[in-house]
Structures are given as C-alpha cells and as structure tokens.
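Query form — protein Fluoride-specific ion channel FluC

QUESTION: What is the three-dimensional structure of this chain?
INPUT:
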Amino acid sequence: MSTLSPFAATVNVALGGAIGAVLRYQLGRQMTGWMGAPAMSVFPWATLAVNALGSVMMGLLAGWLIRFSPEGTEQFRLFLGVGVLGGFTTFSAFSLELVLMVQRGQLAFAALYLILSISLCVSGLFFGLTITRLFG
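ANSWER: The structure tokens for Fluoride-specific ion channel FluC are given below.
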C-alpha cells in the first residue's frame, strides 16, 4: 500500500515523465548525429533503441523491486517505472505486463494482449491519420 499522498504520487510521475521524455528526445538527437539523418529517415532506429533500452531498464527495475522490496518502493516505482520509463517509452510497460502474464501462466491472455495491443494501436493510428486527412 502506498504511503504517498495522491499529490505526491502525481508529482513523482510528472517529474519522472518529464525526465524520461527529455531523455528520449536527446537520445534521438544523439543517434541522428551518430548515424546521420539519411539513415534515421530509412528506419526508426531511435524508436527501436528507446523501446529496447526502456524494456531492459523496466526489467531491471521490476526485478530489483521484487527481489529487494525495500521500504518506499512505491515512490521508486512511480518515479522510475511509471514516470521516467513511461516518458521514455510506453513499450517498456507493455513488455512488463506481457511478461508478467506469461510468468503467471496466463498464456491465452498474454497472446490476446499482444495481438490486441499491436492491432488496435496500429489501426488506431491509421484511423487517426485517416480522420485528419478527411477533415483536416
């Protein structure tokens, strides 16, 4: 149970999210500098790197929180997991949730979550683009 007030929890998430978003932006800029704009325009290298790195970091954080369960883990979870990694990449949260389902033996739900997440999110993006093209 969280000992943080709702306001403190929200501040932790907001500050972490701001840091994560800036880190994502800066990594994209650095990668463009390293690889060059032409390479970055052919394939979304920065997005792939952010999602992969964020998923590894989410795994490390979740493993640390599970293994050590120190006092005040709710603040770490909110600031680092929901905030920083959420701002850095939401794919890390998706990856954690999917792996937890698999580890709990909820294979059917994991498969459904995987299929629905990809199909709904990609089709949702297409839908949004279509709406803006029709009415924009």
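ADDITIONAL NOTE: The first helix runs from residue 6 to 35.
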